[in-house]
Each structure stands twice: as structure tokens, then as C-alpha cells.
């Protein structure tokens, strides 16, 4: 935007209005204030809205001298751009490339961290599985030894019992 003040002596608008400032207020359709700031006689302001609908832009002079002077007028040139607009396309393209590279680099770094965490998780699982396998193998060996001892002791007991039986019946 740009503000021009009416000069009564030369009967024309002056290019710049020294000492003149503009209070810019932007409201959403639900009357929520998005922007309220004091700017100079010319400038650029931008805002991002997350609601659809008609937004209210109010440009208000901060000068009280204009009200007291008869015939005082202001001309406001307002250029409204909807969407994302930049002034210099080469700068924008360079920024876009840098931003794109930054985003890709951050994405790659996130992937590296994810792969590293996944590898650590797999190492921990492998170590836990190996310990469980070793404990199971150890238990199996001991169980086999216990079964063998039980079978041998039962065999010895049966042999002794049969021998005693045959001796008591006088078969041997």
C-alpha cells in the first residue's frame, strides 16, 4: 500500500506523506483480529488465515491533524495479492531450491536416525533372542541328563525288584 496526502496549496496529492502512519487491522469472518500494527506511509503487510470467507482489512491514519484541517484528503493505493506472492522470482527460486535442499537434507537425517534406531532395536532383539536360545538349550541339556538319570535309576530299581521277586519265588 501507499498513502498520498492532499496538499491544499498545490491542489495535488503529495508522493510521500511525512509523519503519516497507517494502522493496519485485519479481521477474520468471525471477527478475530489477525493483524493490528502501525506502519509508515507506505509498506507491505501480509497475513495467513486459516478460515475461508470474507476478511476485513481496515487502514486507519494515526494522524489527528488531518481531521482538523478542512479539505484534507488521503489517497490510498492498495495492491491485494491472494495466495503466496513474492517480489523477485530469481530470489524466490533460489530460496525454494535452498528450502527444498534443506527439507530433503532434514528428511535424510531423519531417515538416518530412524535406520540407526531400527538397527539398535534389532541388535537388542537379537541379543535377547540369543540369550533365550542359550537358556533353552541349557535347559534341554539338563532335562536330557535328568531324564537319563531317571531312566537309569528306574531300570536299576526294576532289575533289583525283578531279581528279588524271582529269588523270593525260587525261580532263580
From TrEMBL:
Q: Which locations, inside or outside the cell, does it occupy?
A: Endoplasmic reticulum membrane; Membrane
Key words, A-Z: Coiled coil, Endoplasmic reticulum, Membrane, Signal, Transmembrane, Transmembrane helix
Which superkingdom is the protein from? Eukaryota
Name any GO cellular component annotation: endoplasmic reticulum membrane
Please tell me whether the keyword Iron is annotated for this protein.
Answer: no
The record ties this protein, via Pfam families, to: EMP24_GP25L
Q: Which family does it belong to?
A: Belongs to the EMP24/GP25L family.
**What name does UniProt use for this protein?**
TMD11 protein
Native organism is Probosciger aterrimus (Palm cockatoo)
